[in-house]
Amino acid sequence: MRSILHRLVARPAGFIPLFWLAIVGFCALLPALVMTHDPNAADFGAILEGPSGEHWFGTDDFGRDTFSRVVDAARPAAMAGLQAVSISLVLGLPIGLFVGYAGGWWDRIVMRIVDAIFSLPGLILAFAIVAILGPGLTNAMYSVGFLFALRIIRLVRGMVLSVREEPFIEAARLSGAPTATVLSRYLLPNMMGPLIVQVTISFAAVLLIEAALSFLGLGVQQPDATWGSMLREARSLQRDNPWIAWPPGLAITFTVLAFNTLGDAYRDVLTEGPGGRAKAAKRGASLGLAQGTTAVSDADPADPNALLSVRNLTVTVPTSAGPAPAVRQLSFDMRPAEVVGLVGESGSGKTVSALAVAGLLPRGVTIDPSSQIHFDGEQLVGKTEADMSNVRGTGIGMIFQDPTASLNPALTVGYQLAEPLRIHHGLSKKDAIDRAVELLDRVGVNNPRQRLKDFPHQFSGGMAQRVMIAMALASEPSLIIADEPTTALDVTTQRQVLELLVELCEDLGMAMLFITHDLGVVAEVCDRAVVMYAGQAVETGDVYDLFAAPDHPYSRALLASVPLLDGDEERLVTIPGRVPGPGEQIAGCRFGARCELVHEACTTTLVELITLPRDGRSSRCLLAGASTESNP
Amino acid sequence: MSGTVLRVGHLVVEFSGGGAFSLNREIVRAVRDVSFHIGQGEAYGLVGESGSGKTTSGRCVLGLQKPTSGSITLGADDVGELARHDPQALHQRIQAVFQNPISSLNPAMTVDRILAEPLRRLAGVKDSAAARTRSAELLDAVRLPSDVLDRRPTELSGGMAQRVSIARALASSPTLIMLDEAVSALDVATQAQVINLLADLRDETGVSYLFIAHDLAVVRHLCDRIGVMSQGELVEEGNSADICHRPTHEYTQRLLAAVPVPDPNVKRVRQDLRTR
Question: What value of ipTM does the predicted structure carry?
Fold first, then answer.
């Protein structure tokens, strides 16, 4: 929470609104310290004056000091906000929690009532409540608070529904926690973010409604000032003194704007994670830099036959200790129609590398400008977002781990398949649908024309992945990047999807960059593999060679830790320790601390990829070549 | 292996499909007449693809899902009865570890508090200093340093988070732990560590496991006996070696054939396609 506040203050969109709201809050608490005159004291000697040294914002038709009245009106504004928002929370929070958690009939009945009330225009409903309770700010705010409670109910119920099925809630019940504890200690704290955003936005809306009600004479009664009532008075004096509407008008505008901007900034801070703003700034800088760079590195020249040639790819990610390289000087080539596996544990940098090639790095993750990614002879590093989108639309297809998360749940599969065909390939609506049918048929979805009308949730995991593959094929790519495409599937479905992918690559002459942590899958589908560890390639080679005689101690250890169906040993081989983080500076070999063959030189020498005599093999080990002979 | 810890007899679970207002409610039979038992200190594997009914069976064992018919007895007690009348006593004896390591832990709590919850409510450790000492012991049991106590789930790696989940399950000294795809979200190296840890913990504490997974290679390493489920039915059951080397049911054979083998010379999707 503390660090969130720090990050909020660190950005202008957080600091400026907070500063303004602090001023408004101060005026509301201690108006006497700010006001220059009594806000309700009439001075008929000085009516409708313009701004002057005596009256900073001028005076109204009673000669009252506008500045002091604007300051004085901060209190009813703050009171209105606090009353309405606290009423909405007191009502909305428990009801939302309860109906979301209890579900069933309670949920149906309460939500239908909420829907019914929601269908009435809010301000009209507020008028009706005011008409019953009588005018006055507090009554008005009861009605507004009631209306906002409905929003809170909806929001909280929605969040409860999404969190309720999380395993940690199940685990809490298994730990013996009673329902009240589950609600208050497990559900509520995990909903604070969106709730705070909703509260700030509610404050803004309440201020506007309060102003509107006062403007119509239903809020605070004369002679007390509110920004809304001051506007009302200003309206009739418009002709005599056009200036008089400005101070209360700007006070409303700035305060509402401050709440809304603060809500947005808070949401950004929550979604971006640590170092958000630094990342964004950094990204802009690197994009600008990258465009001018043409430097060629000293590493091996790019393979002229390669479809994809990656040289010295370095990708920096933000960490709590500042930017750090998650991928270090990665180089590899892919020929047309070749299937290359990028293998490693989590934290090895394999996914970041793949996203870098596809130009899909998240905000704040940057490619070092000296990196080179040549696809079809074209340098991709430094391309604009629009150009990369074009490359993806025509040359590179992408498949992700979780197919259902990658599809839009609100749109039919047909729409999601056909739309890009219309945009990128200029097909007519009918042609696009025909092509979509063809694609679904190609990836083995039965009854494709019918299934185009289905929504993503109507597909099983395996079928949804087929749809993703169809989408990737739509652009007739020469390279498919598949990031753990079968990790979320069970073995039998995995097998089917792997068969499909390999078959498609062979039939269509596509190359595939296959990212996985599963060595079994690599052995099944890949021609070559690049083993990654802590951001570096540690071994590359043809799969037959690599699996028969892994050279790098890490590759050997990784292979030994795979559970086998026919192994007889009871215990699995494990690698002690853990993968070092991107920011960790390690002298010598990055695997050294976990290696069973580590010796003096490993901890002091910078280890390069060493090309082995067998073809296409290389290993980042001082014992490269030697170790395989001693450990066949 | 002295005595039976869990006995599941003729378990049937049916779900009614369609919404509350729909007229034609379809009945989905998720589990059809499943029977198995788990001995003390035994690890029993339940394998099958998604939708085979293995997770639903596991939820019944935990008392989280009410069976349509059939019996589940834990020692001498009926699980359904316990779940209704004394859920705390049930959950002291049966615990669970789920698939997703990070989302199994409350992101708003530190590890210290996550472990204190079952200690306080199920194991009767009321004193907070005693709970902290016991939490540190539990972390030690799952080979984690005690400084993990003050961290939050988001600051843990997948493997570490899964160890914390295992420590939480151990807190009440249960007789049975259900592991629902507990290692499938971990990568190979971490998976191997967790499988070995589970084997060691079983040897140290004598706890039994109901290990639910889809990957037979993983199950074989931990389990003594395996039951294979398909479309709600238990189609084959036997000791691990038999199931993996001499499968009799056609579905088991298919499941075995689908397991990727990390040796391109043995089996390859590519060659299979060509020889077809």
Answer: 0.84
